[in-house]
């Protein structure tokens, strides 16, 4: 009798165990199926969103392109005045920066940083896109030259990969082309950059072995897949027929394609024999990725471009120790010195406990990881290298 009861108990236990296993398998399979469909649904939504954003951005550029066209610049009194200023006050090539009123805080922070370096501000020319930016810079930094180009399509704040973002780079390309046609060599630079030292001391514009020299992505490691990929934030262009053609083609593409300007620069530098492109070493100019390396060989310039939202960028940079404006608007030179010292000592604080990673930086890190593996692929990667960045806006479906 006891054996019978024990046998019944074992049978019931076996049935329960089997039922439980089946239930787990059903639930797991159902969860897997739901996760599978949810992933592709989300992916499809992001693709549709990106498609709409691309169409909107290209339409925006086509609608407002005339206001930043080459002909409008060349035929303007403002450009004629700029050329006179260059002839009279700039024995060395100028550094060109663009801004509207929503970039004033970042610009002020940048000028506080660079104001500690002798003679740097004398090389700057600011392209102010609205009267607020013009008047503020004129009042706050009267010694800095301006090229005022009021552009209603660029009056509002904008972020990475939007139509206005494309438009401002079309303006930059056309302005570069107008300067080249007048025989003026120049630097193009951006304000979201920390200057530890004066890059002009390197005398890159005196080296006649190349026609253009660009900052670059990736790292100085030989294994870096993005070495000699143009970053496009800080570069020098020598005026000649080859660089004129370079920017003519770039303006044509920016006017019609949904693509980052640096992607076009990469494609043309890697597939054209002329102009001769060179690359600034990483120990002179590095992107924000330097902070997440071992922080050795601190660069002269570090571009702090890891944020896609201009409104939160300065706040994020403050967490890293790169905010130099006091509450009363004055410059805090001590903070500039501290930031320089931290770079030189390799002690820029980037730990998660102190500076939570922003959404913008997380996205960039993820996309660079994907890009590195695509470029690492044998044969295919080498073929993709000149062209992959041109479809960067399209591939970055979360932005």
TrEMBL record:
Instruction: Supply the alphabetized keyword list.
Output: Membrane, Transmembrane, Transmembrane helix
Q: Where are the transmembrane segments?
A: 27-48
* Listed InterPro entries: Nucl-diP-sugar_transferase (IPR005069)
Instruction: Enumerate the spans annotated as Nucleotide-diphospho-sugar transferase domain.
Output: 120-317
A Pfam entry, by short name: Nucleotid_trans
The protein's name in its UniProt record: Nucleotide-diphospho-sugar transferase domain-containing protein
């Amino acid at each position: 009798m006891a054996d019978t009861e024990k046998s019944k108990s074992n049978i019931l236990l076996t049935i329960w165990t089997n039922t439980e296993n089946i239930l787990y398998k059903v639930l797991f399979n159902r969860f897997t199926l739901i996760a599978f469909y949810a992933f592709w649904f989300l992916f499809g939504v992001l693709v549709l969103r990106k498609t709409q954003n691309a169409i909107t951005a290209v339409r925006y550029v086509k609608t407002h392109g005339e206001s930043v066209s080459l002909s409008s610049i060349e035929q303007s009194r403002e450009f004629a005045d700029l050329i006179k200023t260059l002839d009279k006050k700039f024995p060395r090539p100028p550094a060109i920066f663009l801004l509207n009123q929503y970039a004033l805080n970042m610009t002020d922070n940048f000028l506080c940083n660079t104001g500690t370096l002798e003679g740097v501000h004398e090389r700057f020319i600011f392209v102010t896109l609205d009267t607020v930016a013009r008047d503020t810079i004129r009042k706050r930094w009267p010694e800095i030259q301006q090229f005022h180009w009021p552009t209603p399509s660029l009056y509002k704040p904008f972020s990475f990969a939007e139509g206005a973002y494309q438009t401002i780079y079309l303006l930059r390309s056309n302005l570069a082309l107008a300067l080249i046609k007048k025989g003026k060599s120049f630097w193009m630079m951006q304000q979201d950059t920390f200057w530890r030292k004066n890059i002009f001391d390197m005398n890159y514009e005196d080296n006649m072995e190349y026609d253009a020299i660009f900052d670059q992505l990736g790292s100085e490691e030989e294994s870096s897949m993005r070495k000699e990929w143009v970053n496009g934030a800080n570069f020098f262009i020598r005026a000649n027929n080859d660089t004129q053609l370079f920017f003519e083609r770039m303006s044509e593409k920016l006017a019609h394609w949904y693509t980052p300007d640096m992607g076009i620069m990469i494609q043309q530098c890697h597939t054209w024999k002329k102009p001769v492109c060179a690359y600034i070493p990483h120990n002179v100019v590095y992107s924000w990725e330097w902070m997440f390396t071992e922080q050795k060989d601190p660069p002269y310039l570090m571009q702090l471009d890891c944020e896609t939202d201009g409104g939160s960028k300065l706040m994020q940079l403050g967490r890293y120790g790169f905010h130099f404006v006091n509450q009363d608007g004055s410059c805090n030179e001590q903070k500039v010195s501290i930031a320089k010292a931290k770079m030189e000592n390799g002690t820029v604080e980037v730990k998660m406990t102190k500076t939570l990673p922003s959404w913008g930086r997380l996205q960039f890190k993820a996309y660079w990881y994907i890009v590195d593996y695509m470029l690492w692929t044998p044969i295919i990667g080498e073929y993709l290298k000149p062209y992959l960045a041109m479809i960067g806006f399209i591939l970055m479906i979360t932005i």
